[in-house]
Amino acid sequence: MRSALFAATAFFSLAVGQPVLAAEAPYVDDRSDAEAVIRSFYSAINRQEFARAWDYFGDTKPVKDFEGFVKGYAGTERVEVKTGGVSEDGAAGSIYYNVPVAIRATAKDGTENVFAGCYTLRQVNAQIQEPPFRPIFIDKGALKPSTAEFEDAVPASCGDGPPPPKKDAALQQVKKAFAATYGEQCDKEMPGGEPLAEPDAYSLRYKYPGAEANEPELETRLFRFFCSMAAYNVSVVYYVYDKESGVRQLQFASPELDIHYENNNSEGKVEAINVIGFQTDDQLVNSEYDDATKTISSFYKWRGVGDASSVGTYLFRNGNFSLVQYDVDASYDGEINPQTVVDYNTPP
Q1: Looking at the domain 4-165, which fold is it?
Q2: Which of 119, 133, 207, 308 is in the most buried spot, having the most CB atoms within 10 Å?
Q3: Which residues pair with 115 in a beta bridge?
Q4: What is the H or E stretch that residue 41 is in?
Q5: How far apart are CA 177 and CA 173, in angstroms?
């Protein structure tokens, strides 16, 4: 008997038309968690990589044979997927994950159907496995036609228990981006030896200039990651997230400086500081975010006492941060006496 999962797919397999251009769909093969496996499964379906899709299931397959599985998607153009809060249970050497799911299936004739239900995935304890190793796999799934709009069709929970806490999808995406870029560059633990903390997170709401009063506010999420500590300087990395652009790492403009000292001796009097260009930095030093002023600041100490340093100020405007002021103290005289070399804050 065909499962409800396969019935859902067969329901919208209406007619064989032109083949899907599989290369148009992104390739995703991520088995790091249950939600990622579900998204990887539908990535394989959208790319017509049916052997890969078949392999995400364990010993219990959604249909009797692989040929029938492929035929079930003969009329499918594409499938969009949304997931809800994942719950888990441990039993007999395995962890079982319950994933609420909604899909919007578009057939090759353009008709759309929404299905909702739950997948159960299983991870066999890696310590007791023998080759070949089996990562998280789909144990079973049951999707039924839904009359709800796709955006609202994801079930609140699977089973009789209360819904699990809502997963912060933006935070998870940002953490993956940070790990992919800086996993080998940044420190593995916080100063003092404690485990790496979650990034600081902020919500910045705004409207573009000229927006109507009744237009809703836009939101940008800001995430601040500790990266490394060396002597008296701590480096941090920033990411932002919004619904239109997704995850972006912030890059910060800073001036390139040509500094002249008396007698060409850096311990002597500063004669001139010239800005000869600009560069971008992917990390800021001793940096903080001030939510009251919507500014990110950096304070780079050229030596431990901090009498020689550079300070940047970046203001949030219209969804992004831009350099508005840069101060430099180039003298190693034991005093704090910076001068402003870039000023977009002060009216002319």
Answers
A1: Nuclear Transport Factor 2; Chain: A, (3.10.450)
A2: 119
A3: 103, 145
A4: helix 34-46
A5: 6
Q: Where are the domains of the chain?
A: 4-165, 170-343
Cβ atoms of 254 and 312 closer than 8 Å: yes
Long-range Cβ contacts of 335-339 (<8 Å, 24+ apart): 335/307, 336/306, 336/307, 338/309, 338/311, 339/273
Instruction: Per-residue pLDDT tens, the chain, 348 aa: give them.
Output: 344 454 444 433 333 333 444 447 889 999 989 999 999 999 999 999 999 999 999 999 999 999 999 999 999 999 999 998 888 887 778 888 999 999 999 999 999 999 999 999 999 988 888 898 999 999 999 899 999 999 899 998 887 656 656 668 889 899 999 999 998 899 988 877 788 889 999 999 999 888 888 888 999 999 999 999 988 899 999 999 998 889 999 999 999 999 999 888 888 889 999 999 999 999 999 999 999 999 999 999 998 888 999 999 999 998 899 999 999 999 998 888 899 999 998 766
The residues, ordered by sequence, that sit 6+ positions from 331 with a Cβ below 8 Å of its Cβ are 269, 270, 307, 308, 337
3-state secondary structure of 34: helix
